[in-house]
Amino acid sequence: MLNDTALINRIALWMAIASTMAIAWSAFSWANARGVFALRQVVVTTPLTELDPGLLESAIRSDLRGTFFTMSPYRARNTLKKLPWVRDVVVERRWPMALDVRVQEYRAIGYWGENDLLSDNGEIFRATSRAPMPRFDGPASSASEVVARYREAKLALAPLGLEVKSMNVSSRGAIALLTKNELAIDFGRDQFAQRLNRFTSLYASWSAEQRAALSRVDLRYKSAIAVGRNSAPLTAQLTPTHSSEKQGIAL
């Protein structure tokens, strides 16, 4: 008899729990259908530098549908990541009825090719900018190397009053640079740092008149540099070498 009473009590308890859950679910569904749990607020918690706030607001209004409970942060993140300048997004629910959006933007250091931009992390991305920045080009796989070489060149050339206007990496890895005063510098494929140091040492030793006359410097030779002058053919100049090395002239 005791066993029967205990069994009946357990059954009654489970039925009560099931009834309570059914009532709660019905109440939740009723409230949800009437917009009680609709999102009331979407807050962008990070300042925007490049992304158009109006474009972000439009994407939020048109694509982030649902209620506080049905909105998928993962889906929202994927939607907002498609916007220009957006590198990554974090979307989090905040009680009651709000979403917090943290946007990480790309930081561009220059233009890449005809239609893209290059980020400071070596990422090529599609966006629009009118900022005065250097222009880069080369195989997409070379983007990270281009960023590294650009930083080296920028640091080394700044004391000389030179700024990088463009940098190109060929399919074979040869690096060519153009400064804002239209001086072309060819570094070739190897020993970029050493050749950059050689250039800065030589440039610092030249007079203002000699610098002004330069149109091109070719550093691809071991014991010589080739120098192009404005309105004059390419000439050659020996660089200092150890006595044990052979000197050569590149024409």
Account of the 3D structure:
The chain has 251 residues and is of the alpha/beta class. Among the domains are: 41-105, Roll (Ubiquitin-like (UB roll)), CATH 3.10.20.310; 139-238, Rossmann fold (3-Layer(aba) Sandwich), CATH 3.40.50. The protein is 34% helix and 26% strand. The protein has 6 helices and 13 strands. The strands form 2 sheets. Strands 6-5-4-7-8-9-10-11-12-13 form a 10-stranded mixed sheet. Strands 1-3-2 form a 3-stranded mixed sheet. Helix 4 runs parallel beside helix 5 (192-205). The longest helix is centred in the N-terminal third of the chain and has 32 residues, at 2-33. The model is unreliable at 30-37 and 241-251 (pLDDT under 50).
Shape: elongated
Q: If you consult CATH, what is the topology of the domain at 139-238? A: Rossmann fold
Counting DSSP H or I runs of 4 or more residues, the number of helices is 6
Structural class: alpha/beta
The mean pLDDT is 82
What topology, given as strand order, has the largest sheet?
6-5-4-7-8-9-10-11-12-13
Q: Low-confidence parts, pLDDT < 50 over ≥5 residues?
A: 30-37, 241-251
Q: The biggest beta sheet, please?
A: 10 strands, mixed
Task: Give the class-level CATH name of the domain at 139-238.
Answer: Alpha Beta
Would you list the SSEs in sequence order as H and E?
A: HEHHEEEEEEHEEEHHEEE
> In percent, how helical is the residue content?
25-40%
Number of strands: 13
**CATH architecture call of the domain at 139-238:** 3-Layer(aba) Sandwich
The span between the termini is 112 Å
| Strand fraction | 25-35%
The CATH superfamily of the domain at 139-238 appears as Cell division protein FtsQ/DivIB
Global Rg: 32 Å
